[in-house]
Write a structure and sequence with these properties.
The chain is of the alpha+beta class. Among the domains are: 41 residues; 103 residues, Tetrahydropterin Synthase, Chain A (2-Layer Sandwich). Helix content is 59%, strand content 13%. It has six helices and four strands. Strands 1, 2, 3 and 4 form a four-stranded antiparallel beta sheet that branches. Strand 2 and strand 3 form a beta hairpin. Helix 3 runs antiparallel to helix 5. The termini are far apart.
Length: 219
């Protein structure tokens, strides 16, 4: 009888042990699920923030693009192409010449037609400007920009429109100023420099808005 009674006692001990293992497994599964859910939520929030920042950046880009100057498509400018210029340059060490295509951008068609009446005088002024240039003056971008400003000014002056002289590129202006200072230092000129006169603003804006180069060949 003692052997028969021992069997239920062992079965009663084993049952709680199995239940404890099941609870432990359930707790582990729940913990893993919680970690997965937490990780998924973090990833979702990161993606949401990234999308929000991208949208804000997109809004900033659109806003900045809207603030950019847009061409007036209803009132486009008038372009007046000139016949190409071929002129000998002022290089002393070699015979160099330039072949340059120029297009004037003017305010409107009416002024463009008026400009054609002065074209012989305008071409003469442009040729005189080009003949004073050397190849070194025209090879770099600042030299071309200075030339465009000079052409714009002289073409307007032919028509009686006074425009301020374009400023020389910063590097070239600095070199000229330093050369003048050295020359004055050698001569021992202690006199005070006269005050520069203020330039008067032109009475009206230049109807020749821009000078464009359609081709620029130096040989």
């Amino acid at each position: 009888m003692s052997a028969a009674a021992a069997v239920p006692a062992d079965a009663g001990v084993a049952a709680p042990a199995k239940k404890g293992k099941k609870k432990l497994l359930i707790m582990l599964v729940v913990g893993v699920l919680a970690l997965l859910l937490a990780g998924g939520g973090a990833v979702f929030m990161m993606k949401k923030k990234a999308a929000t920042h991208a949208a804000e950046d997109g809004d900033d880009t659109v806003a900045s693009a809207e603030h950019r100057a847009k061409p007036d498509l209803k009132n486009p400018p008038t372009f007046l192409p000139l016949d190409p210029f071929v002129v000998n340059l002022s290089d002393k060490d070699a015979d160099r010449y330039a072949q340059i295509g120029i297009t004037l951008e003017v305010a409107d068609t009416k002024f463009g037609e008026l400009l054609k009446a002065y074209m012989p005088a305008i071409r003469n002024s442009i040729l005189l400007i080009l003949a004073q240039k050397s190849s070194a003056d025209l090879l770099d971008r600042p030299g071309k920009e200075l030339l465009a400003g000079q052409i714009q000014r002289e073409a307007a002056r032919v028509m009686g429109i006074e425009v301020d002289e374009p400023e020389a590129p910063a590097a070239k202006a600095t070199a000229k100023d330093s050369a003048k200072d050295e020359a004055k230092a050698k001569e021992g000129d202690d006199e005070e420099k006269p005050k520069a006169k203020k330039r008067k603003a032109p009475s009206e804006p230049n109807p020749i808005r821009h000078v464009h180069f359609s081709n620029f060949i130096i040989q």
